[in-house]
Design goal:
alpha/beta; 6-stranded parallel sheet; single chain
């Protein structure tokens, strides 16, 4: 799936996470990743997808998925290529990132297969002969690659005990590939070097440096909101309006799931 030489490969970027709330830095990650991949001359980024995690993740301070999903929709309204997916957030139980990637890749395959069939039907209607092998080559060539877009903190979390399954890491990096945006103070290159699993598939790991350093995080945004401080120019205005309208993020919301074990730790510790 990763090898398509002699031509630019179409890529779809998928970002998974809490987005609690979504910030301008989350959105900027897509722009940085697209610029980087285009500058390699090997890829054409055709779409970005934001997939908020479901309530079943049980992370401390995680507000309801319906609100996080609504905020992402508002934040991406002005984008011509970044969209939001509700599938993961609608699942009752927490869904592993590898499964979310599989779901979206299957969607890409279905779309490409439909387009291939439609193209073949149009050609047949014009009484042109289509050999079976040509149909197959079209089907394979038309499926875009799907890459996980994330920050360095996500890659470094691969080393956290019981947070990720080894086979999931191998699938994410080996089958799909990742585009990792560096964050202030991170040393993701050292982590890639020290991880045998990631080093094995290092050709599928794209490390992107954000030279315009910005240490914006959703955690700091929530803290500012709890204290009644301004977050203008840090998160989109439409998201600020939504937060104010629904009175989100207060000391009570930050205590949500405070005494609950994170879903992957519950599942993998067993």
């Amino acid at each position: 799936m990763m090898e398509k030489p002699d031509s630019q490969r179409e890529v779809v970027l998928l970002a998974c996470g809490s987005f609690n709330p979504i910030t301008n830095m989350h959105l900027r990650m897509f722009e940085l990743a697209r610029d980087y991949l285009h500058e390699t001359g090997k890829y054409t980024v055709i779409k970005g997808i934001i997939s908020p995690v479901g309530d079943g993740y049980k992370k401390k301070g995680l507000i309801e998925a319906k609100h996080r999903l609504a905020m992402v929709k508002k934040a991406t309204e002005s984008s011509e290529w970044v969209t939001v997916s509700s599938w993961e957030s609608e699942q009752e139980q927490w869904v592993e990132t590898a499964k979310v990637l599989r779901y979206h890749y299957e969607n890409l395959e279905n779309v490409s297969n439909n387009e291939t069939r439609n193209t073949a039907q149009r050609r047949r209607s014009k009484k042109r002969k289509i050999e079976e092998k040509d149909d197959n080559s079209l089907e394979t060539k038309d499926v875009p690659e799907l890459m996980l877009l994330c920050g360095a903190d996500v890659v470094e979390s691969f080393n956290t005990p019981n947070l990720w399954k080894k086979e999931d890491i191998e699938e994410i990096v080996g089958k799909f590939g990742i585009v990792c945006i560096s964050r202030l103070g991170s040393n993701v290159e050292k982590f890639v070097y020290e991880s045998d699993i990631i080093w094995k598939f290092k050709k599928n790991v794209h490390l992107v440096t954000e030279w315009i350093t910005n240490d914006v995080s959703a955690t700091k945004v929530r803290r500012a909101l709890r204290r009644g401080q301004s977050v203008k120019y840090v998160i989109p205005d439409s998201v600020i309006e939504y937060i104010q309208k629904h009175s989100l993020y207060n000391p009570c919301s930050e205590d949500k799931n405070a005494n609950v074990v994170l879903a992957p730790l519950q599942r993998y510790a067993k």
